[in-house]
Design goal:
The protein has about 280 residues and is mainly α. The protein has helices spanning about 20-40, 55-80, 85-110, 125-145, 155-180, 185-190, 190-215, 220-250, 260-280. The longest helix has about 30 residues, at about 220-250.
Length: about 280
């Protein structure tokens, strides 16, 4: 049985191409726009005020820490894109997917008619972030396929992705079943739109893509390798954001906060981040 190796090196170059040049520009633009939105948002200046309850807002404040880190990472990676190095596309693919998902929850997850705020004034900023994120995701994914010689722990990747997808699916289906069985909880009543939006995005898109990508690791190809790197990066960043959300909820003692939630997220984050790192590091 051929031993898995990790060969997505951090210093090898593929040469500057139109795709890598576009990746450099998009990473710089997306990072700047994302950092601007984060600084203007509830984590720092609070100039952009969300139409959310204080309890729901606590979750976003926690997650914004990861979003700010992603913004800086994207801007820092721009020179490496321009030089044609391989690692920026591997990082940017998952980061761009994370940005698109997060901004979708920001725009569509607010209770505009229920809580006061002014987030609609930043609509064009969020639309620009989403457009740049989608473009960067496409370019990063195509660049990963063009590299063509990615090699990572495919068997481990398959198990991790299938396990995460199955666990999250069971959790979300349990919450939906609980709603139908016993009615809305206090947390649901304060963030109704966000509750259904997250379940819709995860059950309709994220979980199926995670499971399919995991299962396809049995028949590797440049496309499945690129999908693995993208999904692992996306899930690692998303789970990191959820961990910060859980910790912020504990710190502020909001409804639904629990150490069980924080430890549960950590148990999912650890293997996802570990396997993603295996795809990223250089090894002879």
């Amino acid at each position: 049985m051929m031993r898995d190796t990790v060969r997505l090196v951090t210093v090898e170059t593929v040469g500057r191409t139109p795709e890598t040049a576009a990746g450099a520009v998009l990473s710089l633009v997306l990072g700047f726009l994302l950092l601007s939105a984060t600084v203007l948002g509830p984590l720092f200046m609070d100039r952009i005020r969300f139409h959310m309850s204080s309890d729901a807002l606590v979750q976003y404040v926690g997650g914004e820490v990861v979003t700010a880190i992603v913004a800086v990472l994207l801007m820092v990676s721009a020179p490496a894109w321009w030089l044609g190095q391989q690692w920026p596309s591997a990082v940017a693919a998952g980061a761009a997917a994370y940005v698109v998902y997060t901004i979708a929850t920001v725009v569509a997850g607010q209770e505009y008619s229920r809580y006061s705020g002014n987030a609609e004034k930043a609509f064009l900023l969020y639309a620009a972030i989403t457009a740049a994120g989608v473009a960067l995701l496409v370019i990063s994914f195509r660049t990963l396929i063009d590299i063509g010689d990615l090699s990572g722990p495919r068997q481990g990747t398959g198990w991790v992705l299938v396990a995460i997808g199955a666990i999250v699916a069971l959790l979300w289906l349990g919450q939906v079943a609980g709603f139908y069985r016993t009615g809305p909880t206090q947390e649901y009543q304060t963030a109704t739109s966000l509750f259904w939006l997250i379940k819709y995005l995860d059950l309709g898109f994220v979980i199926p893509l995670t499971l399919i990508t995991g299962l396809l690791q049995r028949t590797p190809s440049p496309g499945t390798d690129a999908a693995a790197v993208t999904m692992l990066g996306f899930l690692s960043l998303l789970l990191a954001a959820l961990l910060f959300m859980a910790l912020e909820m504990l710190r502020r003692e909001t409804p639904g906060a629990s150490w069980a939630l924080a430890f549960g997220v950590m148990l999912l984050l650890a293997p996802s981040a570990a396997v993603w790192t295996r795809w990223l590091i250089s090894r002879d």
